[in-house]
Fold:
Amino acid sequence: MANIKVTIAYDGTNYHGFQEQRGTRFKTIQGVFEEKLSWLAKEEIRVIGASRTDSGVHARGMVVNFKPGGLLIPPERLTYALNGVLPQDISALKAKKVSAAFHARFSAVAKTYRYVIYNGKMPLPYLRLYSYHVHRALDIGAMREGARCLIGRQDFSSFRALGTPVKTTVRNLFDIKISKMCELIYIDMRADGFLYHMARMIAGTLIQVGMGKLKPHQVAEILAGCDNMMGGPAVPARGLFLINIEYPAHALVC
Structure:
């Protein structure tokens, strides 16, 4: 059976996260996307999402897949058709046929999230929904030193919000890059998976390091403590972006 992979971008400001919540009136990215896709297909179509981003989180590289059923629009035309009916805060970027076994969530081997910090003294209104404003100057060198403690396959219990059951709290954090462009600081985190609020809690802890409230070596102590009360707070969702999701080549061959 045919299987279609679509990469989408969205502004999560006005949505209650990505995942559809059946039986509620919450507006979600998945709910709106399925509604428009089903309208094009003239039948109900459900999609599988690669990640369940929270309310207010944005995406440049979310991936979904679905069985097209009666949808007659070829993949090379599908993005144009979708963008003709989707609201302006959701966009279909790419569409292609993939292996029948491809699963947007379970086939993924790596995800990259970016946290954006605006480090200027005065607030900029046009950045307020797409960054976290920290007016106090941050020490990028100290943040990078603290971030190095987190790289590798480790138990990230200290960087996880409670309430969501998981089989294991061990994740492989492949890399963290911290860069600065003018007054914007980017924290890019690439891992095989993320726990609930993990990216936001890592960013919050590194901000504490940057402000001098924590020493870089204390990040390793927080990680080893396996206690989510030890680290920095989860910073606001509005500064978080899902940037990219990686898949093995064999999963993409149709």
The beta strands are 4-10, 48-49, 58-66, 90-97, 110-118, 132-133, 152-155, 170-181, 184-191, 240-246. The chain has two domains: 4-106, 110-244. The longest strand covers residues 170-181. The radius of gyration is 19 Å.
